[in-house]
Amino acid sequence: NGVTVVRFNNQPEVEAIDLSLTAPFPALKELVGTKCLKLHQIFVDQEKVAMVPNGQLAELHSLMFSGCSFSGELLPRLLGEYNSPIGQCLTRLDFSSNMLNALPPRMPEVCTHLRYIDLSYNKMDRFPSVLFQLPHMIELNMAHNGLLELPSDEDGDIQGYAARCWPALQLLDVSYNELSTVPYTFGNLRVRSLGLEGNRIK
Fold first, then answer.
1. What distances in angstroms separate CA 11 from CA 8, 35, 68, 148, one per listed residue?
2. Per-residue pLDDT tens over the stretch 71-87
3. Which residues contact 71 (CB under 8 A, 6 or more apart)?
4. pLDDT tens digits, one per residue of 27-60
5. Which one of 34, 47, 80, 172 has the minimum C-beta count within 10 Å?
């Protein structure tokens, strides 16, 4: 039935991953890497992941690369900027402990089923507005990023805007950032866990 999980853990010298030997790809459901500090390329069938034909990796639901020092270059290639099929069935995305300062604008178009996102310990001082376009979100972790503010609706602070965008949200963690206020945009969130500690909110 092929490979269902591929893990690359504690490989600080690895610069590229070649998934060619894991075929057939439709069985691959999880792609996990931790502390791959030099990783900057992922290959499938001797091509960069940006070149993977549609249908490959069709059932991948978890993409987790934590502590890999990723900046803003690899993530767009993985998640839709270059017609990558990765993302079509993703429900879980963990890019915590990297160096990301933004998300790809087209990510919501490709990753329409995302439910669990961990972007903690990155370099985002602005909350990515593209996250509001992911209506199935259940858990969102943006802790330890240096966020300066949370976004308001384009027409001003509208009570409950975030609640309408994320009707299923159960956990929102924006702790240990640089927030001084929480706008009405985030009013009426019926989450089980809301992390705000470690900010400058009075």
1. 7, 6, 9, 33
2. 766 666 666 554 555 66
3. 98, 99, 100, 101
4. 556 666 666 656 655 654 433 443 333 444 556 7
5. 47
CB count within 10 Å of CB 100 equals 19
Structure tokens at 88: 């079509």
Tokens of 179: 């927030």
Instruction: Calculate the alpha carbon distances from 39 to 8, 98, 154, 185 in Å.
Output: 10, 11, 38, 37
Separation in Å, CA 92 to CA 151, 153, 156, 158: 23, 26, 31, 29
CA 194 to chain centre: 19
Q: How far apart are CA 78 and CA 96, in angstroms?
A: 16
For the residues of the chain, what is the DSSP string, one character each?
Answer: ---SEEEEES-TT--EEE-GGG--GGG--EEEEES-TT--EEEETTEEGGGPPTTTTTT--EEEEESS---TTHHHHHTTTT--STTSS--EEE--SS------TTHHHH-TT--EEE--SS--SB--GGGGG-TT--EEE--SS---BPPPBTTB--TTHHHHH-TT--EEE--SS------GGGTT---SEEE-TTS---
Pairing relation of β-strands 47-48 and 41-44? antiparallel
